[in-house]
Design goal:
Helix content: 55-70%
Largest sheet: 8 strands, mixed
Structural class: alpha/beta
Order of helices and strands: HEHEHEHEHHHHEHHHHHHEHEHHHEH
Radius of gyration: 27 Å
Strand content: 5-15%
Length: 387
């Protein structure tokens, strides 16, 4: 499928947009802005699934205290922010505990097995660390919401991870775990037979170190979990297929600094290698392109060079101290030259990334933190612009 010329067109032609990238680059804000853009420029039902947004942004979106529940942003709230929506905007915030509980209830072969897992004393601790559980449960929740067919577009704010690929690999890791030797050894004592005999030295050592009750709890937990093998594995494979579907596209979010750009480079390469569609690269918090112009640097150099003369004129007309005015003007000219250098480097990064990503969108560094619908609307205007 040919890449659309803008994020707006991308939102109109895909069913899932995943905002991904390293932590701290504004993925949550970008995801929310893409959803706002889609809901305000085209008819349809748009859902943004966000992961732990900043408190003020969560309040602005109506997410406070909601968790997994999907709620609609009231049309009057959008109108009060200065926009007449053409579609509907819905939001949900991933609730880890509830998502895992729902997953167990859905995949368990019977109510008794589900209750045994949910009441197991290790359940809370293990699910918090289990096979990148945050990443897997985000993909599981995405599949669940998409399969309802209720949404024309789902925008996903992917979990913040050290490795930006964790959430892509989570379904495969879940499937791999259920086929692993480790799981067979953990449940061997309850299964008996040759494997149980072979595992006996391991269980005897574990019993001495961990205690009998702990070993029984962990064996019971994983034995119950294995009973859901079919449901987990089928769902993991379905999620993997969904990620590579032509209806799904990725928005890679980064900032122009060196470390996030390296992450973006790596992530773009991996998405291409895996056959996933790259919709756009969003360079957030960038300097204005005008700073990179030669005219800007020339003007800054002239200001620094003529600071003594200009300062005298300014000081006389405004009644200021001439020496202080000269220092301010010289520092301003010097700083402007430095910013011009940084802006040119950012422009070079943008041009290079444009050879990798089909669309590069630059978002300026806003003066204030985007923490309300007005801010999201302002940001969405940049996202919706045609380069």
């Amino acid at each position: 499928m040919t890449a659309p010329p803008s994020v707006r067109r991308l939102a109109e032609t895909r069913e899932i947009l995943l905002c991904c990238g390293p932590g701290g680059v504004g993925k949550t804000t970008i995801a929310a802005s893409v959803a706002v853009l889609a809901a305000t420029t085209a008819p349809g039902r748009v859902l943004v699934l966000t992961i732990d947004p900043a408190r003020r942004l969560a309040d602005a979106l109506g997410l406070k205290g909601i968790g997994n529940d999907v709620v609609q942003i009231d049309e009057e709230t959008l109108r009060a922010a200065g926009v007449s929506p053409r579609g509907e905007l819905w939001c949900a915030m991933l609730d880890m505990k509830r998502s895992w509980d729902d997953l167990i209830l859905r995949h368990a072969p019977d109510a008794k097995t589900a209750e045994r897992i949910l009441s197991n004393p290790l359940y809370q601790n293990i699910t918090g660390r289990f096979v990148q559980s945050h990443d897997y449960i985000a993909m599981e929740r995405l599949h669940e919401l998409h399969s309802t067919g209720e949404w024309d577009l789902i925008v996903v704010d992917t979990p913040p991870t050290r490795n930006a690929l964790d959430f892509l690999d989570a379904p495969a890791r879940m499937e791999e775990f259920f086929s692993s030797r480790l799981l067979r050894w953990l449940i061997a004592p309850a299964r008996g037979g040759l494997l149980g005999i072979a595992a006996r030295p391991f269980t005897q050592i574990a019993d001495r170190i961990l205690g009998t009750q702990f070993l029984e709890d962990i064996t019971d937990f994983f034995l119950s979990l294995q009973s859901m093998y079919g449901g987990f594995v089928d769902r993991a494979r379905a999620v993997s297929r969904l990620l590579s579907d032509e209806r799904t596209s990725f928005l890679v979010v980064a900032t122009p600094e060196a470390a996030p750009v390296r992450e973006a480079d790596f992530f773009l390469d991996e998405l291409t290698r895996r056959g996933y569609e790259i919709g756009a690269l969003v360079l957030n918090r960038a300097l204005p392109a005008s700073l990179a112009l030669n005219e800007t640097e020339v003007a800054a150099a002239d200001l620094a060079a003529t600071a003594p003369q200009v300062a005298g004129e300014v000081a006389a007309s405004l009644g200021l101290d001439a020496a202080a005015a000269e220092r301010v003007l010289a520092a301003t000219g010097s700083a402007a030259r430095d910013w011009a250098v940084v802006a040119r480097r950012e422009a070079a990064v943008r041009d290079r990334l444009a050879t990798i990503a089909p669309l590069v969108v630059t978002i300026p560094n806003f003066d204030d933190e985007v923490s309300d619908l007005q801010g999201l609307l302002a940001l969405s205007a940049h996202l919706g612009a045609v380069p």
